[in-house]
Amino acid sequence: MQLFVNDLTVIDFSYLCSERGVVGESWIVDVLLSGDLNAESMVLDFGIVKKQIKAIIDDSVDHKLVLPTQNSDISISKSNRSDHLYVDFDVKDNGIFLQSPSAAFAQIETDYINELSVTRYLESVIKQQLPENVQGIELTLRAENINGEYYHYTHGLKKHDGNCQRIAHGHRSTIHIYENDVRSTDLEQMWCNRWQDIYLATVSDQIELSQVELSEQAKGKLKPDHQYFSYYAPQGRFDIAVRAGTLEIVDCDSTVELLADYIARQLKAANDANNYRVVAFEGVGKGAIASA
Questions:
Q1: pLDDT class for 92, splitting at 50, 70, 90?
Q2: What are the phi and psi torsion angles at 21 (to 5°)?
Q3: Residues 6 or more apart from 216 whose CB is under 8 A from it?
Q4: Dihedrals phi, psi of 57, to nearest 5 degrees
């Protein structure tokens, strides 16, 4: 007997890629369970699937930076801070170096992060916590079918009490931009090109090299155009070094509300005679609207 739940959850996370750098991603999760009927004549109660299995998936990957530990470009070591890790991603032209609480990372034994490697990781984690009558689980991870432009961005929200505070989690998002009440695909394409595989940092979080906490190995590999950001949040201290070519520093916190406003203000500043409305998405099916 099989039981399925489509659109169980959406995982918003970022991962490290030797070709693209740090990549924000959003995947929809479908689940298929196989097993015998239990005493309630069910494979598993839908309430348990929607609550317990969703919680396992969210706790394992959602709002984390996913690390392919078999990738030779990545080095992971213990930080001088308790329960924190250093992550050094030493790739040509795009070195990224971090310190974060260990809970901000998901470590997967693979050399490349994709739907298959994350699916296998999640299935193995979930199987350990299923009741005996459930013999099999099959996950499907899929990107939203977006009819138009989209971008991948990574960020962190220091004021957030939950997991959004993690300095390197992200989203795959679309955007709708209206110029004088007419949708502009040209402006949408411009912003999606501008923010493709981008790290969005808040100017108030920027620090000097002398203030950043990174591994000794990382400090020997920093380039002149690396920019440094750090903050304390309820889960611990977060530090990141990102090169200028994959970075945009914004004058606000990077909540979707303020990012929508930031884009609207940028458009208005470039052409004050026109009015703009920005519908910015944060992952799948949610976002904010701002006008200028």
A1: confident
A2: 90, -135
A3: none
A4: -60, -45
Distance CA 169, CA 157 (A): 10
Helix (H, G, I), strand (E, B) or coil at 12: strand
C-beta neighbour count of 181 within 10 angstroms: 8
pLDDT at residue 51, rounded to an integer: 78
Length of the chain equals 292
Q: How far is Cα 52 from Cα 130, in angstroms, rounded to an integer?
A: 10
For residue 262, which of 250, 273, 244 has the smallest C-alpha distance? 250
Q: What angle do CA 204, 198, 212 make, to 5 degrees?
A: 40
Q: Strand locations in 84-216, DSSP E?
A: 84-89, 96-101, 105-108, 134-143, 150-155, 169-179, 182-183, 198-202, 206-207
Contact 282, 144 (CB under 8 A): no
Q: 1-41: per-residue pLDDT in tens?
A: 777 889 999 999 999 999 999 999 999 999 888 766 665 65
Residue with more model confidence, 177 or 134: 177
Which of 137, 138, 139, 134 has the alpha carbon at shortest distance from 35?
134
245-253: average pLDDT: 97
CATH class of 2-291: alpha beta
pLDDT of 46 higher than 60: no
Q: Is 272 exposed, middle or buried (0-12, 13-18, 19+ CB in 10 A)?
A: exposed
Domain ranges of the chain: 2-291
Against a cut of 0.85, is the pTM above it?
A: yes
Tell me what percent of the residues of the chain surpass a pLDDT of 90: 85
Q: In the numeric block, which tokens belong to residue 77?
A: 């070591």
